[in-house]
Write a structure and sequence with these properties.
It contains 21 helices and six strands. The longest helix is centred in the last third of the chain and has 30 residues. It folds into two domains: about 240 residues, no CATH class; about 140 residues, no CATH class. The chain is globular. By secondary structure, the protein is mostly helical. The termini are far apart. The protein binds NADPH dihydro-nicotinamide-adenine-dinucleotide phosphate (NDP). The site of NADPH dihydro-nicotinamide-adenine-dinucleotide phosphate has 18 residues, from α17, β6, α19 and α20.
Length: about 475
């Protein structure tokens, strides 16, 4: 009898322990279930001020030659009222609405209806149907990787128009920049709100939804992990890559065209910004399959942060250097131009090689060479929501042995190069490096918090083996 009772107690203990383990992994892996006051305050701040920050930057270029200080001085001195600035701001126009609707529809068509053919003839390119990482609910999604194709088609049409068809002016984006901002905001808010409603009423995968109970947090950070319409329209892949990143290089080209129109030439700084950012964008699409394994797709839920961020923040603030150069055409001395180019290229090389090393290592399950040698790594394990145990590896050699986020370091070097191309007359173009430093440092912390929750003591062994985050010996 006593033995039977002991067995019953033991079974009960095991059941509770399994529940707790599941709850623990469910609770910690992925974004938070409980919202601390700091996160909530940051979210409320961003929801209220991020749209104003974007407006302020773009308005200051439009009305104050990209000076961030002059509008404040004007307001403080009483030379202008907020209403004066607002009244001078171009309104939403039918033309901009038409351009934007056409643009987004075109990208949807390229994404949904044209399966990738680039991987069939470009050696080394990974496109077509690819698998994402295992979600916390244990799902592996399939994605149609055709971003490179969408980028090529869009840009071929752009150049065909600029040099042959002349349907519209290549300065069209610059000329409608503020009216287009209102359109981008409408889409950004619409898609974030739709994603929120969808997660309550028709989620793509209910097990991969996270409700914190805090409306603002859920709206900002998203509830659904991988919202989709139909089998292939994936919100995260589409919004991050298509209207935002395909547009990035077109926006820069439009700025270059505007310089040509205004000054009769394109400065070397504008060419540098176009080339360096062009490499970054092309890299993104060349490695779109790899992108499926990055934090945005693997861990972030789809809310305002990604929805609005991809529609508004990214195209408007990541392109500030080109916009600035329209108002201040900087012609760099040869040695400065070469120095900036080198910084940008070395930064890009570090960024790409570090990402490539992790991708190769994970893809081959460690059966590869890193810098000519067998990789060194730490074995680790984690659990999904249903309690299934998975095994993984953390690379500790190559750039991953130098620092835990050396890919971010390379990214920051490249970002600094874009800003330096604009000279030192104004601070506006330096917003990007300030923002990227905050973003990527915050990412280090947030990712490490998540990885610690996911891998537990294995993550501690990893941080002991690779003690620095971004700069070996310093941070
Ligand atoms: P990472 O590509 O560094 O991915 C982090 C994940 O990789 C971790 O969550 C963990 O995931 C896994 N991982 C961590 N350490 C190791 C290791 N030693 N070995 C193997 N796997 C490891 O981060 P991001 O997704 O944030 O960034 C990808 C790139 O995109 C970066 O180069 C970044 O600079 C760039 N980026 C650019 C942005 C921009 O706005 N321009 C914004 C954000 C990123 P797991 O759970 O699989 O173990």
């Amino acid at each position: 009898m006593a033995a039977r009772q002991e067995k019953k107690h033991s079974e009960e203990r095991n059941r509770k322990s399994t529940q707790n383990n599941t709850r623990a992994s469910q609770g910690q892996w992925g974004r938070a279930w409980e919202v601390d006051w700091f996160s909530l305050a940051s979210i409320l701040f961003l929801l209220m001020f991020a749209p104003l920050i974007v407006y302020y930057f773009i308005m200051s270029c439009d009305q104050y030659q990209c000076s961030l200080i002059d509008p404040v001085i004007d307001l403080l001195m009483g030379n202008q009222h907020l209403s004066d600035i607002w009244n001078k701001t171009p309104a939403l126009t039918y033309r901009a609405a038409g351009i934007y609707a056409l643009w987004v529809t075109f990208q949807v068509i390229l994404y949904v209806f044209i399966p990738d053919f680039c991987h069939k003839f470009i050696p080394g390119y990974v496109g077509g149907v690819q698998e994402g990482a295992v979600t916390p609910a244990g799902v592996v999604n399939k994605y149609e990787i055709n971003g490179l194709q969408a980028w090529i088609i869009t840009h071929v049409l752009w150049f065909a128009n600029a040099y042959y068809f002349h349907w519209f002016s290549p300065t069209i984006i610059f000329d409608n920049w503020i009216p287009l901002l209102w359109c981008a905001n409408i889409l950004g808010y619409a898609v974030s709100t739709f994603a929120m409603i969808k997660s309550y009423y028709f989620p793509t995968n209910a097990k991969d939804c996270k409700f914190t109970g805090n409306f603002f947090y859920d709206y900002m950070m998203g509830i659904e992990f991988n919202p989709r319409i139909g089998k292939w329209f994936d919100f995260k892949l589409f919004f991050n890559g298509r209207p935002g990143i395909v547009a990035w290089t077109l926006i820069n080209l439009s700025y270059a065209a505007k310089q040509q129109e205004l000054y009769g030439q394109v400065t070397n700084s504008m060419i540098l910004v176009n080339v360096l950012q062009g490499i970054y964008v092309l890299d993104f699409f060349w490695n779109e399959a790899w992108y499926l394994k990055t934090i945005d797709i693997c861990h972030d839920h789809f809310g305002w942060y990604l929805g609005w961020g991809d529609c508004v923040w990214l195209p408007y603030l990541y392109t500030l250097q080109g916009l600035y150069l329209v108002y201040h055409p900087v012609q760099l001395g040869t040695s400065n131009a070469i120095g900036i180019l080198m910084l940008g290229l070395i930064g890009y090389y570090i960024f790409r090689m570090t990402n490539h090393q992790k991708d190769l290592f994970r893809r081959t399950n460690g059966n590869c060479k890193i810098w000519g040698k067998k990789p060194e790594y730490i074995e680790c394990s984690y659990m999904s929501v249903d309690g299934t145990k998975y095994y993984s590896k953390l690379l500790t050699s190559g750039f991953w042995g130098w620092a835990r986020h050396f890919n971010y370091t390379g990214d920051l070097m490249g970002s600094l190069a874009y800003c330096l191309a604009c000279g030192f007359e104004h601070i506006l173009p330096y917003f990007y490096i300030v923002y990227m430093t905050i973003l990527l440092t915050h990412r280090c912390i947030r990712d490490e918090h998540r990885c610690f929750s996911k891998y537990g003591k294995d993550w501690k062994r990893y941080t002991a083996a690779v003690p620095y985050r971004l700069i070996p010996g310093i941070f």
